[in-house]
Amino acid sequence: NKSGKYLKDVSDWMRLCFRCHREYDHREVGIKRAANLIAQSHYCESLILVAGNGGSLSMSDHFAGELVGAFEKPRDPIAIISLSNYAIISAIGNDFGYEYVFSRQVEAYGQRDGLFICLTTSDVDEEGGHSLNLWKALGVCRNKKKMKTIVIGSNKTIRMKK
Questions:
Q1: Beta bridge partner(s), residue 117
Q2: What is the longest distance spanned by two Cα atoms in the chain?
Q3: pLDDT at position 17, please?
Q4: pLDDT digit string (tens) for 64-116?
Q5: Would you say 145 and 112 are in contact if contact means Cβ atoms under 8 Å apart?
Q6: CA distances from 134 to 53, 82, 89 (A)
Q7: Could you tell me which of 137, 73, 77 has the C-alpha nearest to residue 102?
Q8: CB-based contacts of 65: which residues, under 8 Å, 6+ apart?
Q9: Which of 126, 145, 135, 121 is nearest to 56 (CA)?
Q10: pLDDT in tens, 16-61
Q11: How far is residue 119 from each of residues 6, 59, 60, 83, 96, measured CA to CA in Å?
């Protein structure tokens, strides 16, 4: 909330991150940095994009729902889109290949200095194609769109976090 009525400082944003994603990364520094990026995007009116595969895709929907909705108490909605529309994913997968389902959407919706949140419990394996769609999306964010990125992952998520 730009007026500061409900989300007054970084500790409020940290509470949002801790509460929604406590099963992920509990390191306070990383969560504080992520909360700052989310707050900064909101205050600058930048669109936030979030994506993941499988259960993490469901988590991206839930995460977006909490930020657009009224997580814990009424407040202004936060501009966030989960890249989970099955019609879009299916069309991109059919036309370009499954490895492009998120990067193509980042090209369409991503804004310079915007934010992309990648939720994953695995890591990229370029040879086998595992999580290649998220890897390519991170590449478009960083190299083409100049977006900030957050990777919320597991102990297995090593390359993507770098």
A1: 50, 150
A2: 49
A3: 65
A4: 999 999 877 788 899 999 999 999 999 999 999 999 999 999 999 999 989 99
A5: yes
A6: 8, 13, 13
A7: 137
A8: none
A9: 121
A10: 666 655 554 456 667 788 889 998 998 999 999 999 999 999 999 9
A11: 26, 8, 7, 11, 22
Structure tokens at 56: 């993490």
User: Torsions phi, psi of 107, nearest 5?
Assistant: -60, -35
Count of other CB atoms within 10 angstroms of residue 27: 9
Beta-carbon contacts of residue 126 (< 8 Å; ≥ 6 apart): 132, 135
Look at residue 148 and give its three-state secondary structure.
strand
pTM, entire model: 0.80
The answer to whether 16 and 71 have CB atoms below 8 angstroms apart is yes
Can you tell me whether residue 80 is helix, strand or coil? strand
Beta bridge partners of 119: 52, 152
Paired strand residues for 81: 49
d(CA 14, CA 32): 6
Question: What is the distance between the alpha carbons of residues 7 and 1, in angstroms, rounded to a whole number?
Answer: 6
pLDDT over threshold 70, residue 2: no
92 SS3 class: helix
